[in-house]
Every structure is written in structure tokens, then in C-alpha cells.
Amino acid sequence: MPAVRVWDVAEHSQVAELQEHKYGVACVAFSPSAKYIVSVGYQHDMIVNVWAWKKNIVVASNKVSSRVTAVSFSEDCSYFVTAGNRHIKFWYLDDSKTSKVNATVPLLGRSGLLGELRNNLFTDVACGRGKKADSTFCITSSGLLCEFSDRRLLDKWVELRTTVAHCISVSQDYIFCGCADGTVRLFNPSNLHFLSTLPRPHALGTDIASVTEASRLFSGVANARYPDTIALTFDPTNQWLSCVYNDHSIYVWDVRDPKKVGKVYSALYHSSCVWSVEVYPEVKDSNQACLPPSSFITCSSDNTIRLWNIESSGVHGSTLHRNILSNDLIKIIYVDGNTQALVDTELPGGDKADGSLMDPRVGIRSVCVSPNGQHLASGDRVGTLRVHELQSLNEMLKVEAHDSEILCLEYSKPDTGLKLLASASRDRLIHVLDAGREYSLQQTLDEHSSSITAVKFAASDGQVRMISCGADKSIYFRTAQKSGDGVQFTRTHHVVRKTTLYDMDVEPSWKYTAIGCQDRNIRIFNISSGKQKKLFKGSQGEDGTLIKVQTDPSGIYIATSCSDKNLSIFDFSSGECGYHVWPLRDCHWHEV
User: Fold this and answer.
1) How far is CA 120 from CA 28, 85, 86, 141, 405, in A?
2) Among candidates 367, 380, 393, 376, which has minimal Cα distance to 303?
3) Measured between alpha carbons, how far is 407 from 562 in angstroms, rounded to an integer?
4) Averaged confidence pLDDT in the chain
5) Which residues contact 482 (CB under 8 A, 6 or more apart)?
6) Interatomic CA distance for residues 286 and 450, integer angstroms
7) Cα 362 vs. chain centroid, distance in angstroms?
8) HEC letters along 237-305
9) Which SUPFAM superfamilies does this entry report, sorted A to Z (predicted)?
């Protein structure tokens, strides 16, 4: 059920969970006194609630028929304003009633007098502060900054000179308007006079590794495309403006002097679903490492592969250097140079922005790093396999390997004595490539009758094995046979279970493989015999499916990620749960 959750910032803990909306929560706002929270549901919800959140009760409520995009409280907490499609409404709170009556009282609402702007979509609203506390400021999607008087009259408006306006923040001295193409404009709240325009963030498709000096950020790029500014908030104490852009990047600007704005902080993130994470392996000769220690790689539906490093001491031992755009992101690979998927076009309520239909097949589905740390293999949503040299980040291989998305990639470990890469896909095929011979095709396996969700190599009992599992509920155990042309894998065991098998990992001794299943159980199999050794519950919850399993380098623990958004760590031998948190989708151990 949709909820408004209140968190203690210092303790990182949830202190309230407010549930009344049925379809979703479009927007929320604290009252300046922090006594109340107002929440507005999605359009089909048609409810606006005022919560005494510490008591977990709704003190005032009413229906709203329009699609609401934003809400803002007045400085004296006597009213709040909602904005939306052809909608500006003032809601008045009688604190004497809301404080004393236990039952929910009706909210009193009065529409703003929109005049000739009545057909506009008002995307954001902010009540005035200080000398302008009686005014209410809002913006329209068409690019107008409007001011309403204390009588709800549309007093004046000015043009923002932008194609789309998304967000607004108001202080005693400034009005900040976030617009399309990375633009933020500053106005004087007293008279709506234009003051200045903030610097824009990085351009879409920027090689962040080359942005090592501030001059690179503040110098414009001809014909560049920038992400839209979709949210902003002003800190009057430090005079900092925090901006969120629709490529999921965050910038904090020092606006103490609007004519000389400086960047305080910035961070860049994936703008869409992250499908896979891969920890960069430890390389015996550090001089041969392409990435520094504590590095990892992610891929996403935004069609990028990103290289990260979480060491605070700086990047060393590689050709990559720290950039001024992110403390932890060191490189972005824009696959095929496609930047269309870099921006998130989804609006509150699940709607899409006009003309923003994205190709659902765009995106990188899986990544894997070779054991020597030199090559990075990736598979996309349409079945294309790519291999990049990590030293130069040049693409050395691109082949249309599958007819559908590549769900998993796996390099064989050095202990197998082989240099193989296996790619498995939704098209039910596994391709085995010889990485030591320019990725020539060694074999194609077609035993599975549905999507293949995981494939692993192992070396046990003097034999090289390949294990795969899939949505057909089958597990295939194969043994490598050397031939004149290389290596061929032949099936030795075929096991079927009554549940879909979503992910698999091999523990360090290579005796056992652990499989995460749809029924939330972890099944442990002996690799040599193909027999199931044990079964234990892989999630603390009663909902969802296990979508990722990973054993730690010692083989003592196994981590699981469940579709109910919970991460658990179990003792591999006993199956006892030792740790439980709310995580992301994927998980991976890092050896230290």
C-alpha cells in the first residue's frame, strides 16, 4: 500500500509510516513548524490529507479532482497551496480545530483566480518568504513564472524563456526556476525582475574522465544537449542551491554571489534500472591492473557502462584520474554513442513526458570482467555481445550473438586452465567463446527450453565443468572434453525442480553450487554428482523471489537479494540468517 515515510536523518531510521492513499503519493510537504505533513495522492486517488505525523492521524482531508503536481506550505502554516493541471488551490487550516478534535475535519479549499492562464499546467508552486510571505509563486510547463496575491489573484507573470519549466524554490531574496536543458534562472521575488542564470551541468555524453579542471565545466559546448533541471531546493544558511537533473545527477551550487556561482558538490548516477554489478578482480601485478583497488562496474538500461571507485585516497595505478564531477564515478562508456536513454522522462504518477517514448530494447543487461582484469564483456537487450579493452576502453569485439537479451556472461577462472567466455540469453542458447583466440566460437549449446538465467564454470575432480540454470526449471551439469578444435562440453547431469531458477553461484572450493529460486529457497548441489545436498530459506520475507545469490570469497557466507527489496546474508553451511537489510536489486562480494 502507498505510504508516506518519515525518516530521522541523523539516525538513518524510519520514524513514521503514514498510509491512507490507495494508488500512490504524488507530492508531500512539511509545514514550516514540522507539526504537519500534507500529502496528495495520484489523480485517481483524489485525496489530499493533512497529517499530525507524530500521532499518525489525519487531522484534515478533502477531495481534489485535478492531477496535482506540487504542494507548498505558507510561512505561517495557516494554509498550503496545490498546483497541477489547470489547478491552483489554496487550502486553509484552522489550527484550533485540527489540534483539539480527534476526528478528521474537512479541509476548506478555494481555487486561485487564473484568468487567461486557466488552461496551463502548473508544474510547481512555492509560497513566499519574509516580506513576500503573503504571495505565492508558481511556474507553468510552458515557461511562465507567476505570482498570486493573498487574495488568490494572479497578480503578475514573466517569461522564463525556456521550452519547459519544471521546478521552483523561493527564499526571501531569490526565486530559483529549474528549466529545460540544464537551465536555472534567478529572479527577485519583490518585482519578478531577472537577476542571472546559473551555470549548466555537464552535457549529456560528456567524457567525465577528461573533466579534471573547473574551466572545462564552465565552458560551453557547441550544439550540446543538457539534462533538464527537475528539482531544486535552497539552503539559506549556507546560500547553497541543490539541483537534481533528469539524468539523475545532483549538483550543489554556491549562489552567495549570483554573478559568480561556484560548484560545491556534484554526483552522477545511472538514470534507469541497474541490471548488473561486477567487482574488478585483484590482479597479482598491480602494474598490470587497468583499474585501481576497490573498483567496480555497473550496467544499466540507460545504455551506459560505468566504472566506479570507492577509495577516498584517489585513483592510482591506472590511466584514469579523479574528475571534478564525481567523487566515485571515474568513467562512463556510452555504448554506441547513444545518449537518448540518459534522461529519465517519467513523470510523477507514472506518466511519460510528451514525445518521450523510449525504445524498450535499449540498455546493457549484463557485464563480466576477465580474470586478468584486461577485458570487459557486456551484453545488451537485443543480443549484441561486446568486449572492451579496459586499458584503453576501446571496443575490440562487437557481434550479434543472440536473438534476444543476453542475461548472463561468465569468464572461466585461471584454475580451469582455459580462457573461455560463456554468454547465455533469453533465446535459450549458450555460446562458448575462446577468449585466448580472439573470442572465436567454440560451441553453441541448446539444451534449455526457456530463458537461461545463469551460467558458471568450475574445476572439480580434475575436470572443467559448466553449470547452467534457467526459467525451464532445469539445471545442466556439463564436463569439458578437449578436441582438436579446442574444447567441447558434454552433458553429464540434468536436474529438474518444480520452481524457476533465477541465479547461481559456485562456492570457492568448486564442490558446490548455490541456486536462488522462485520459491525463495536456496538449493545447494554437488557439482560432480549433480545431486542436491541441502535446501534452506533464502529470504526472511514471505513475498517475492530470489533474484541474486552470491557467495563470499571465504565460502562461509552467501548473500541473497529478493524481489521484495530485502538483502540477507546466510551461513553457507547451516543456512542460518546472520544479517538482513533493505537493499538494491543486485549484490556482489568484494574481497579485502
Assistant:
1) 22, 7, 5, 7, 42
2) 380
3) 17
4) 91
5) none
6) 42
7) 16
8) CCCEEEEEECCCCEEEEECCCCCCCEEEEEECCCCCCEEEEEECCCCCCHHHCCCCCCEEEEEECCCEE
9) WD40 repeat-like (SSF50978)
User: Given the C-alpha cell 533464502, which residue does it identify?
Assistant: 538
In the predicted structure, residue 590 carries a pLDDT above the cut 70: no
| pLDDT value of position 370 | 97
**Rounded mean pLDDT, 383-405:** 96
**pLDDT tens per residue across span 271-292:** 999 999 999 999 888 888 999 9
Lowest mean pLDDT among 189-203, 335-349, 541-555: 335-349
Sheet containing 154-159, strands listed edge to edge, beginning at the edge strand earlier in sequence: 122-127, 136-140, 144-148, 154-159
Lookup result for grid cell 552470491: 550
In angstroms, rounded to a whole number, what is the distance separating the alpha carbons of residues 457 and 517? 20
CA–CA separation, 424 vs 407, rounded Å? 6
Query: Rounded to an integer, what distance in angstroms lies between the CA atom of residue 258 and that of residue 203?
Result: 22
Residues 287-318: pLDDT tens digits? 889 999 999 999 999 999 999 998 865 554 55
Place of cell 515557461: 143
Among candidate residues 58, 7, 66, the one with its CA nearest the CA of residue 42: 66
60 with 104: CB under 8 angstroms?
Answer: yes
Q: What is this structure's pTM?
A: 0.90
Contact call for residues 91 and 80 (beta carbons, < 8 A): yes
Supply angle C-alpha 108, 89, 78, rounded to 5: 55
Structural contact between residues 188 and 260, judged by C-beta atoms closer than 8 angstroms: no
Query: Which three three-digit cell numbers place residue 101?
Result: 478534535
pLDDT band at 447 (very low <50, low <70, confident <90, very high): very high
What does DSSP assign to residue 349? Answer: T
List domains and CATH numbers for the chain: 4-198 (2.130.10.10), 274-498 (2.130.10.10), 499-592 (2.40.10.480)
In angstroms, the CA 331 to CA 341 distance is: 17
Beta partners for residue 235, in sequence order? 240
For the stretch 465-518, pLDDT in tens is: 999 999 999 999 999 998 877 899 999 999 999 999 999 999 999 999 999 999
The secondary structure of 36-78, three-state, reads CEEEEECCCCCEEEEEECCCCEEEEEEECCCCEEEEEECCCCC
- Grid cell listed for 280: 574488478
End-to-end CA distance of the chain: 40
Q: How far apart are CA 543 and CA 83, in angstroms?
A: 37
Instruction: Estimate to the nearest angstrom the gap between the alpha carbon of 187 and the chain centroid.
Output: 33
Residue 380 in contact with residue 359, Cβ under 8 Å?
no
- The answer to whether the CB of 454 falls within 8 A of the CB of 504 is yes
- Closest among 474, 492, 475 to 529, alpha carbons compared: 492
Q: Cell numbers for 511, please give them.
A: 564442490
User: Which grid cell is 385?
Assistant: 555481445
